[in-house]
Design brief:
By secondary structure, the protein is mostly helical. It has one domain. Helices cover 70% and strands 0% of the residues. The radius of gyration is 19 Å and the shape is elongated.
């Protein structure tokens, strides 16, 4: 048996953006729709975070990391705050595809200005945007379990790891989209 390092090499045309199937004329209107929806849901979630009395709202809960921190947070909440936290987790399941599509479409639109390696990187960034909600869903499941009485478990650590990966993927996608958008056009005429 021999090892072929060429099998591990990704070629520039071997990966497509997950939303590349969308017709070009629909990309910008869909982006604007999902961007506005993301902003609206972000505002709703900020309002839902107020009763939680945490420095960074629900994000502080996501990064509790340990059973002790998670228990301290949940035990500090009133019944109303727990309801707000549960509602916030529920809204997040709507938020996941919305922010993912806004980010993915933003990446796709920015990639339209480029070719070659930048186009290839757009596909990878697009898949990062598509992967973020998967980690978000696992994180929310863990947070729900903590909220319903299982703080003394591995769930706080799972939530923190998934939140870290989720935010990393979102930052990766947003960084690519902004960079590609700001760079001069590099598409052959």
């Amino acid at each position: 048996m021999t090892f072929d390092p060429g099998l591990l090499t990704l070629k520039e045309d071997s990966v497509n953006h997950p939303l590349a199937f969308l017709p070009s004329n629909l990309r910008k209107p869909l982006f604007i729709t999902f961007l506005i929806s993301t902003i609206i849901l972000s505002i709703v979630m900020q309002v839902m975070d107020k009763p939680l009395n945490l420095p960074r709202g629900i994000i502080s809960f996501e990064f509790a990391s340990t059973s002790q921190n998670a228990s301290r947070i949940v035990n500090s909440w009133t019944e109303q705050a727990r309801i707000h936290a549960a509602f916030s987790l529920g809204i997040d399941f709507l938020y996941m595809p919305v922010y993912s599509l806004a980010l993915g479409l933003g990446i796709l639109l920015a990639a339209g200005k480029h070719s070659g390696k930048m186009k290839f990187l757009s596909a990878l960034a697009g898949w990062a945007a598509a992967g973020a909600p998967l980690f978000d869903a696992v994180e929310n499941f863990a947070l729900w379990r903590i909220l319903t009485g299982e703080a003394q478990s591995a769930y706080p650590g799972i939530a923190a790891i998934c939140a870290s990966i989720k935010f990393g993927l979102i930052i990766l996608g947003a960084t690519y989209a902004l960079t590609a958008w700001l760079l001069p056009r590099r598409v052959p005429a």
